[in-house]
């Protein structure tokens, strides 16, 4: 099944004492089958909320609005209650940061997955079991026959995450969302999981949304990148283009703050001064203006920047960039 | 070279019961490491490598099964020795959310080391707290707050500030930036560099993130399954790793500079 | 990211009750308990008669406008006796609660922070106390010495300290394993200092909950002892004592036992409600602490 996700002007708000607080504000993106999109951002950037909206699992108090979220001709914004079941798990699956959250500790790995399969489609026990072995194999779960009888608590963090991936694959979804899925893992396990996700994307033609705070990881995943800050998308484009040629002062700041295997103290890190703004305190202006070194006086405080093209498929929402181009945001 | 702080032949074993029979589990096997005045030593490894255990043994939170910790060449053995050691060596915990007493105001937590060790007249305490908060880049008003009113980054600075109140000669930092956002992480790293340069602080910096260790430390030790498998000057280890594990670890680190270089 | 989202939620639109950090159980319980305490304190003003004035012309009168709760077998006004009895019952229960919490906290902290031998002794003492039938202990003591209010309070402290000690010890042990205690150790804090300034404040919220629950149990315990004749001695009224006086007439004059019984039930109910409410509040605050 071809996948086409088209999110237009997605906003997520909570009502607060002084009116609504937007945790995601006017975010749009597209994704085709076989493509990957990395959503990168720090705590409070709203990147997890975007994913939750795609699965209809935002907290009850949240209000989701927008022009539409088009998913293969179905508008997810208009989807409610029971109708979500046909989408969730079956067409769009999610892998969480903490695999234990998705796994029932009292049920063996094998039964978790067969149960999930039989909940979504009619099939015999044997067919479900065959599919379970197939997806565990796809997820690179070792010593299948023997270890699929284990309980989640008997597995290491890396293996648990593989089970969670197998569970996500079990109903043959066309989009997988991985929300900080490798954050708690050791680096060598993380590298294995990233390789696995990339391979699954290519082999099965899956669309992949990978949420992370680590730009190094974003580069390893590849595909498209959307950088989020305080609920806003500030820059998007092909991962390598954005990282090689960052055009938003925030993306610049992130890259200057993050050490790489090439960095040394002769070229010191330059932290972004200050703290991220509190949700609801941004108002009409640019979300990054309070920490931005190249604020455009008067303009950044008053209006949000629209998208400016910075190359093929590469867009930036920054007044300074629109005014002075690349030199202005360096 | 006499290191300020040195651990020699540290072994730590745990007894665990497996199927009813006691098994000896070797968390750390024969590890030696030292840190010279003003030096930053990086200790890297994955979870279960024993790096945290080694660091905790060096400050006496855990006891080694065998091996010695020496400070300025003298072995640290008795309770009094450890007390003396902790006047000069301090420790910053990994998790900023659990390392601060939840019921104590920040100012009181920072004043505590001064009061315990009678470092200065009572009247000077608030001034010193304020100065230290400024040193770690926090507003003096933070002293009146409770820990749960602070963000992770702010708490980690408070932890750092508290360890620095005793004006230690050496600091052991266990994964202190791994829970922080990138931009905040850079602020803390910059602060550590500044402290090392200005106060001549020695630092044992424990991390699983080789990118940070490469940036910060001049010498690096790689731990794997309780052993040090490779050590040397940072440049040498990173640019020309000798041990397979070090190579695997380096290859596993997600790194955009490498991906970009590969694409170009 | 996931870390901040719950905080945003927690800060939204707190209702009136939540802003005052008072929930329904706590509010109802406190109001009810307030009424009970006030009526005991104001007994001299509220009582229509002295609690010990005998009037043999008006024995065992049922409740009426003149005698709200009726009169007892020797014609004393039951309403006045219940009001005055509240003074005694609440005083004894309150003192017993405070005493048992003090002793329990001390023993609990020793059980968590003492040396190996101190911990062993405290552990055994708690086990023994919890296994001991304290009604028997009460009978033994009151048959050896003449029952009086101080003896009664002492008895209640002996009967109840172990419950508090167990709660305090388990919380203290849990806190002791946390990094902040190790951090305090590293900066040179003594075990006493750690126990007093770092761990004890974390015990307080649970102690407050426990205080309410303990008080409720004390009210009932005092009534039990007095009802068994081992409590406050006549003619001083206490709720249990008043019930004892009416015991023989339970089939003919229900008010003699039912109305003081109602006072006991309402008071302990109010305290249980307070305890419940405090517990909910404590858990809510604690979970918010965890998120922030």
The CATH topology annotation of chain C reads as MetI-like fold
What is the top-level CATH class of the domain at 4-91 and 173-245 in chain A? Alpha Beta
Show unreliable segments of chain A: none
The main sheet of chain C comes to: none
| Chain-averaged pLDDT of chain A | 88
Distance, first to last CA of chain A: 43 Å
Task: Give a topology summary.
The complex is a heterotrimer of chains A (330), B (264) and C (292).
Chain A: E1 4-16, E2 19-32, E3 36-40, H1 47-55, E4 62-65, E5 68-71, E6 74-75, H2 83-87, E7 92-95, H3 99-102, H4 109-120, H5 125-138, H6 144-147, H7 157-169, E8 175-179, H8 187-204, E9 207-212, H9 215-221, E10 224-229, E11 232-238, H10 239-244, H11 249-257, H12 299-302, E12 308-311, E13 314-316, H13 319-329
Parallel strand pairs in A: 3-9, 3-10, 7-8, 8-9
Antiparallel strand pairs in A: 1-2, 1-4, 1-5, 5-6, 10-11, 11-13, 12-13
Chain B: E1 5-18, E2 21-35, E3 40-44, H1 51-59, E4 66-71, E5 74-75, H2 79-88, E6 89-92, H3 106-116, H4 125-135, H5 152-164, E7 170-174, H6 182-199, E8 202-207, H7 210-216, E9 219-224, E10 227-233, H8 234-239, H9 244-252, H10 256-263
Parallel strand pairs in B: 3-8, 3-9, 6-7, 7-8
Antiparallel strand pairs in B: 1-2, 1-4, 4-5, 9-10
Helix pairs in contact in B: 3-4, 3-5
Chain C: H1 5-10, H2 16-19, H3 24-41, H4 43-46, H5 78-113, H6 116-131, H7 134-144, H8 149-176, H9 179-186, H10 191-227, H11 239-246, H12 255-291
Helix pairs in contact in C: 3-5, 3-12, 5-6, 5-8, 5-10, 5-11, 6-8, 7-8, 8-10, 9-10, 10-11, 10-12, 11-12
Task: Give a brief description.
By secondary structure, chain A is an alpha/beta fold. Helices cover 35% and strands 23% of the residues of chain A. Chain C is elongated.
Can you walk through the features of this model?
The complex is a heterotrimer of chains A (330), B (264) and C (292). Chain A has 13 helices and 13 strands. Chain A has 330 residues and is α/β, with parallel strands linked by helices. In chain A, the strands form 2 sheets. Chain A has an 8-stranded mixed β-sheet, with helices on both faces. In chain A, strands 1, 2, 4, 5 and 6 form a 5-stranded antiparallel β-sheet that branches. In chain A, helix 4 (109-120) packs across helix 5 (125-138) and helix 5 (125-138) crosses helix 7 (157-169). The mean pLDDT of chain A is 88. With 264 residues, chain B is an alpha/beta fold. In chain B, 39% of the residues lie in helices and 27% in strands. Chain B has a 6-stranded mixed β-sheet, sandwiched between helices. A 4-stranded antiparallel β-sheet of chain B has the order 2-1-4-5. In chain B, a hairpin with a 2-residue loop joins strand 9 and strand 10 (227-233). The termini of chain B are far apart. The mean pLDDT of chain B is 89. In chain C, helix 5 (78-113) packs antiparallel against helix 6, helix 7 (134-144) runs antiparallel to helix 8 and helix 10 runs antiparallel to helix 12 (255-291). By secondary structure, chain C is mostly helical. The longest helix of chain C is centred in the C-terminal third of the chain and has 37 residues, at 191-227. Chain C has 12 helices and no strands. Chain C has a single domain (21-42, 68-291), classed as Orthogonal Bundle (MetI-like fold), CATH 1.10.3720. Chains in contact: A-B, A-C, B-C. The interface between A and C is medium-sized, with 21 and 10 residues.
């Amino acid at each position: 099944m071809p996948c086409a996700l088209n999110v237009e002007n997605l906003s997520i708000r909570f009502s607060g004492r002084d009116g609504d607080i937007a945790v995601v504000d006017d975010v749009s993106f597209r994704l085709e089958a076989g493509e990957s999109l990395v959503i990168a951002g720090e705590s409070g950037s709203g990147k997890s909320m975007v994913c939750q909206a795609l699965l209809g699992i935002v907290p009850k108090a949240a209000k989701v609005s927008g022009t539409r979220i088009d998913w293969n001709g179905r508008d997810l914004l208009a989807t409610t209650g029971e109708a979500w079941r046909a989408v969730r798990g079956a067409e769009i699956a999610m892998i969480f940061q903490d695999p234990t959250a998705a796994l029932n500790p009292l049920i063996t790995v094998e039964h978790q997955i067969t149960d999930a399969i039989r909940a979504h489609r009619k099939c015999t026990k044997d067919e479900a079991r065959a599919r379970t072995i197939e997806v565990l194999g796809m997820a690179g779960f070792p010593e299948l026959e023997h270890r699929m009888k284990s309980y989640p608590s008997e597995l290491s963090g890396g293996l648990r995450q593989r089970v969670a991936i197998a569970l996500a694959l079990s109903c043959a979804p066309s989009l997988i969302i991985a929300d900080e899925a490798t954050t708690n893992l050791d680096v060598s396990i993380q590298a294995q999981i990233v390789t696995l996700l990339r391979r699954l994307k290519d082999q099965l033609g899956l669309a992949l949304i990978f949420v992370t705070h680590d730009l190094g990881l974003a580069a390893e995943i590849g595909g498209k990148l959307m950088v989020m800050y305080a609920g806003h998308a500030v820059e998007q484009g092909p991962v390598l283009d954005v990282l090689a040629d960052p055009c938003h002062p925030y993306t610049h700041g992130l890259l200057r703050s993050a050490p790489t295997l090439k960095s040394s103290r002769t070229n010191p890190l330059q932290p972004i001064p200050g703290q991220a703004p509190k949700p609801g305190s941004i108002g009409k202006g640019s979300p990054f203006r309070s920490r931005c070194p190249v604020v455009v006086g008067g303009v950044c405080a008053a209006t949000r920047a629209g998208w400016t093209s910075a190359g093929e498929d590469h867009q930036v929402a920054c007044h300074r960039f629109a005014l002075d181009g690349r030199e202005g945001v360096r | 070279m006499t290191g300020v702080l040195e651990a020699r032949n540290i072994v730590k074993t745990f007894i665990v019961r497996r199927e009813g029979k006691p098994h000896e589990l070797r968390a750390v096997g024969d590890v030696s490491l030292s840190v010279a005045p003003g030096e930053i030593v990086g200790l890297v490894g994955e979870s279960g490598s024993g790096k945290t255990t080694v660091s905790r043994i060096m400050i006496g939170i855990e006891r080694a099964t065998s091996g010695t910790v020496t400070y300025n060449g003298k072995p640290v053995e008795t309770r009094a020795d450890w007390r003396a050691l902790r006047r000069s060596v301090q420790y910053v915990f990994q998790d900023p959310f659990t390392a601060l007493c939840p019921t104590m105001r920040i100012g009181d937590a920072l004043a505590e080391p001064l009061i315990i060790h009678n470092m200065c007249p009572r009247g000077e305490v608030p001034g010193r707290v304020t100065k230290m908060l400024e040193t770690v880049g926090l507003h003096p008003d933070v002293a009146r707050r409770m820990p749960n009113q602070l963000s992770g980054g702010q708490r980690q600075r408070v932890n750092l500030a508290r360890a620095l109140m005793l004006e230690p000669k050496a600091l052991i930092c266990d994964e202190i930036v791994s829970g922080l956002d990138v931009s905040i992480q850079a602020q803390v790293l910059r602060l550590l560099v500044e402290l090392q340069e200005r106060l001549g602080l020695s630092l044992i910096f424990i991390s699983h993130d080789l990118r940070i260790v490469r940036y910060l430390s001049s010498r690096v030790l790689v731990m794997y399954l309780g052993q040090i498998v490779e050590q040397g000057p940072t440049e040498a280890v990173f640019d020309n790793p000798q041990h397979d594990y070090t190579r695997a670890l380096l290859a596993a680190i997600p790194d955009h500079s490498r991906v970009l270089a590969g694409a170009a | 990211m996931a870390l901040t989202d719950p905080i945003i939620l927690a800060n939204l639109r707190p209702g009136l009750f939540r802003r005052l950090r008072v929930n329904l159980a706590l509010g109802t319980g406190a109001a009810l308990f307030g009424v009970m305490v006030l009526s005991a304190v104001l007994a001299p003003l509220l009582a229509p008669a002295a609690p010990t004035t005998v009037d043999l012309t008006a024995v065992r009168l049922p409740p009426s406008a003149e005698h709200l709760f009726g009169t007892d077998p020797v014609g004393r006004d039951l309403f006045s006796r219940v009001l005055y009895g509240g003074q005694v019952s609440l005083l004894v229960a309150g003192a017993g609660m405070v005493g048992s919490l003090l002793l329990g906290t001390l023993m609990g902290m020793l059980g968590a922070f003492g040396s190996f031998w101190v911990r062993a002794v405290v552990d055994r003492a708690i086990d023994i106390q919890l296994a001991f039938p304290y009604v028997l202990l009460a009978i033994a003591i009151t048959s050896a010495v003449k029952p009086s209010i101080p003896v009664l309070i002492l008895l209640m402290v002996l009967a109840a300290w172990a419950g508090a000690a167990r709660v305090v010890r388990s919380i203290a042990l849990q806190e002791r394993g946390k990094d902040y205690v190790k951090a305090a150790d590293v900066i040179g804090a003594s075990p006493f200092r750690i126990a007093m300034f770092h761990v004890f404040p974390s015990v307080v919220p649970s102690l407050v909950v426990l205080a309410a629950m303990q008080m409720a149990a004390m009210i009932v315990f005092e009534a039990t002892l007095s009802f068994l004749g081992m409590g406050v001695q006549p003619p001083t009224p206490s709720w249990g004592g008043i019930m004892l006086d009416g015991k023989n007439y339970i089939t003919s004059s229900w008010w003699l036992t039912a109305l003081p019984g109602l006072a006991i039930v309402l008071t302990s109910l109010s305290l249980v409600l307070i305890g419940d409410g405090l517990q909910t509040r404590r858990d809510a605050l604690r979970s918010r602490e965890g998120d922030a």
